[in-house]
Specification:
alpha/beta, single chain, 6 helices, seven-stranded mixed sheet
Length: about 260
């Protein structure tokens, strides 16, 4: 498996018994349990058909040579193969906040249409589109705990990145989407290409941690005893970092635009 644009790793490598090669144009401060290769996505140093699967987890928006990178992905991916792509929707509140706060934040490609992105990918990678999942935001990039130095002055307008403020803000965005069918808490999309033995769930995980950004299905959180009742409603503790977050039921999340995304072909 190729983890492309991975920095220190886009998932926990040790959880899977497969050979993984992580690639990034910059050396990460900490490396995951995989072989790391420093390379440009537009010029991959691998033979054709080298990988059974490729993961581009929030990396396509950073590739300066996007078309060349997609050509290279298509070249090194075996047939049949599998491709996973996650990108932000540039028209959402979250991505606009991110680019405003970080002066672009390294996002050189703006994806405002899932249809257009799927067409661009399939022009170079013929694997069929298997599923599209909406991704929810947690605004974790605003969290003051995630700023190693003094937070940007602009962050003062958003409670200086206070974690408690972000908890209530993200919860309010989820409630608005549920009640008004808006898309305030939508972050982007996850696209699955290839053929899979089992169907891929296409519902959103609305419980995304405001501190570490990890998401978990609401039913699983309940089964694991992570959800508690309080004076102000239900909340859950993040299994990965222990942060407290407001709890929402995934099946009640219906933001505008998501049904159309699921029918892309």
């Amino acid at each position: 498996m190729l983890d492309l644009g991975s920095r220190s790793g886009s998932f926990t490598y040790t959880s899977y018994p497969i050979a993984i090669i992580a690639v990034d144009i910059e050396k990460p401060a900490q490396r995951g349990a995989a072989c790391f290769v420093q390379a440009d996505a537009g010029h991959l140093p691998f033979a054709a058909a080298s990988f059974d699967a490729v993961i581009c987890n929030h990396s396509l928006e950073h590739f300066v040579q996007l078309d060349a990178a997609l050509e290279e992905i298509g070249r090194v991916l075996k047939r049949p193969g599998k491709l996973y792509v996650a990108v932000p929707d540039s028209s959402t509140l979250t991505d606009r906040l991110y680019r405003w706060l970080a002066r672009g934040g390294g996002h050189v490609n703006a994806f405002a249409s899932a249809d257009d992105l799927v067409g661009k990918i399939r022009a170079r990678i013929p694997e069929p589109l298997a599923a599209v999942r909406p991704l929810c935001t947690s605004l974790s990039f605003l969290n003051q705990r995630n700023h190693p130095s003094r937070p940007p002055r602009k962050l003062w307008l958003l409670g200086s990145g206070n974690e408690g403020v972000l908890v209530w803000l993200t919860y309010s965005l989820r409630v608005a989407d549920r009640a008004l069918h808006t898309r305030w808490s939508l972050y982007g999309w996850a696209l699955f290409f290839g053929e899979y033995a089992e169907p891929i769930r296409q519902d959103a995980w609305t419980n995304v941690c405001v501190r570490c950004g990890s998401g978990h299905p609401s039913g699983w959180l309940v089964e694991q005893g992570r959800v508690r009742n309080g004076l102000l409603g239900r909340h859950f503790t993040c299994p990965d970092c222990g942060a407290m977050n407001r709890f929402t039921a995934d099946e009640r999340y219906r933001p505008a635009g998501v049904p159309q995304l699921r029918q892309i072909d």
